[in-house]
Amino acid sequence: MQPVIEMRGVTKRFVDVIANDKVDLKLFPKEIVGLLGENGAGKTTLMNVLFGYYNLDGGKLLINGGEVTFGSPKDAINHGIAMIHQHFTLVQTQSVLENVMIGMEGSFFLNKKKAREKLLGIEKDFGLNLDPDAIVWTLSIGEQQKLEILKSLYRGAKTLIMDEPTAVLAPTETIELFETLRILVASGHSIIFISHHLQEVMDICDRVIVLRSGKRVAERKVSETSIPELASLMVGRELLERLERGEAKTGNAVLEARNLKVRNNRGIVAVDNLSFTLREGEVLGVAGVSGNGQTALSEMLFGQVKPEDGEIHISGKNIPGGSPSAIIKEGMARIPEDRIKTGLFMDLSVKENMILESHVNEPISKKGLINMKEIRSFAEKCINNFSVKTDGMDAPVKSLSGGNLQKVILARELVGKPKVVVACQPTRGLDVGAMEYVHQAMLDQKTDGAGVLLISDDLDEIFLLSDRIIVMYEGKIIGEVSTNEADRDKIGLWMSGVTS
Ligand SMILES: Nc1ncnc2c1ncn2[C@@H]1O[C@H](COP(=O)(O)OP(=O)(O)OP(=O)(O)O)[C@@H](O)[C@H]1O
Ligand SMILES: [Mg+2]
Questions:
Q1: Which of 132, 164, 166 is nearest to 147 (CA)?
Q2: H or E stretch including 204?
Q3: The pLDDT value given to residue 359
Q4: Which of 10, 45, 410 to mutate to test the pocket of ligand 1 (most atoms within 8 A of CB)?
Q5: How confident is the model at residue 88 (pLDDT cuts 50, 70, 90)?
Q6: Ligand nearest to C-alpha 196
Q7: Domain ranges in the chain?
């Protein structure tokens, strides 16, 4: 059978890195191929080459057997290829229909009626129901992703490249996405699917290709492999079987939320009269389906948003709402959910991003003078301890892969000795090896006496690390239990709002 897409010996270099080294990849009609690899292995780069973002430095691209050269994504789109990025490219203030029509030929007003009909037809064929008149900012993340898929189909895409599509989805949204993908392949489409969640890859893919340091190191049919095999192919070593959580040795309260209340930017109460106490030496897991106030809670705890009501105490001290600097000064390590928007300055170097929060303190700064030697040794320690894959500490942070950006934040926040760690979705987008590392780092923080608040919509992660679990539902804590006594089914019910 003729492959729809064939990448033959594709090489892509950046100044000092070979991001893709003679990679071969074939994609057949009606097939879902998983693209796996550690952070920085070259997955996104390879897909950006296929989507016409980058020129090839070697090798060939063939579509239906014929060689092509893409000058820009427009050429790729004209050949039926679409790429759905992890960060969406929608216009938030426009409607679903308007977003679908953006960039299409012809007069906007004349074709709007026709466009609506065409859109509704596609929605029906693929079971992707969205109100054409809904404004994008009112849509959930899962719905926005549906819109990205609709946009691609409207443009006649036959091949969809999805770069970590499930990283932003709640479990139920992932199930819906997989239903859509199955309908798509049944109707003749082909999909390249990138994910760090090996179970998902086993569930949805037919075949997988594994990259390591830019090279293709393995290919397997999903029916002939296993999660442990895929993990070791990616990492090049066996992974540890299990972490030891250990007992909590709890001490004083390090973080207290007292009757916190806040509204989101649509004026709806996002966190409602929420209270909890986090102690030294424990991991408190905050479980819940995403969208139940977790983000708003973290924004208040990080000082980014002032609570409408209530107080935040760190080590017994009342911290004024909306003051990140006061919070950092009291020793809180902050691992935000959206690392690109709130965690990093993309135009600064790796080293500068690493000292963002410590540059005013000794030993980096003494009597107002910055000590370059200290900065370099701090950055080196961060890079080594967290195996950050970079060309060096002076490289701009924007040249790092998604997972390595996350490592820069984790290193910066955890290398010091925080009293309290607030981590939101800390392993989202991390490869299996890095995930294991971060989990160990959280447990080490607890052993060192810090209190760790783990906000995660990954229930496995919550169970693995937490000593105590609270569940958020519609902005409130709907239940609390110690992990040793917790029952997964009951937590699942709490997550969907059922308490009796
Ligand atoms: N624009 C760029 N300039 C310089 N180097 C880059 C650029 N884009 C990517 N790289 C480097 O190329 C390598 C591959 O990066 P890529 O983003 O393809 O990895 P990835 O497999 O998608 O990783 P992740 O799972 O973390 O998203 C990395 O070493 C990265 O630092
Ligand atoms: Mg990537």
A1: 132
A2: helix 198-204
A3: 61
A4: 45
A5: confident
A6: 1
A7: 5-235, 242-331+418-500, 345-411
Ligand 1 within 6 A of CB of 404: yes
Kindly state the helix (H) or strand (E) to which residue 186 belongs, with its residue range. helix 171-186
Residue 35 confidence (pLDDT) above 70: yes
Span from the CA of 77 to the centroid of ligand 2 (angstroms):
20
Question: Over the Cα atoms of the chain, what is R_g?
Answer: 24
Q: What is the CATH number of domain 242-331+418-500?
A: 3.40.50.300
What residues pair up with 355 in beta bridges, in sequence order? none
For tokens 């916190």, name the residue: 260
- Quote the CA–CA distance of 357 and 367 in Å, as a whole number: 17
End-to-end alpha carbon distance in the chain: 56
**Prediction pTM value:** 0.82
- Name residues with Cβ closer than 5 Å to ligand 2, which is an ion: 44, 402
Candidates 3.40.50.1970, 3.40.50.300, 3.30.300.30, 3.90.180.10; CATH matching 5-235: 3.40.50.300
Asked if 47 contacts 76 with a C-beta cutoff of 8 angstroms, the reply is no
CA distances from 50 to 10, 20, 71, 118, 358 (A): 10, 12, 11, 28, 41
Which residues touch 125 (CB under 8 Å, ≥6 apart)?
187
Q: CA dist 135 to 220, 270, 340, 489, Å?
A: 42, 20, 24, 36
User: Residue 195 is which amino acid?
Assistant: S
Per DSSP bridges, beta strands 476-482 and 468-473 are antiparallel
DSSP-H helix ranges across 249-311: 294-301
205 lines ligand 1 (CB under 6 A): no
SS3 240: coil
Mean pLDDT confidence for 170-194: 93
Fold match, 5-235 / 242-331+418-500? yes
CA pair distance 432, 439, nearest whole angstrom: 11
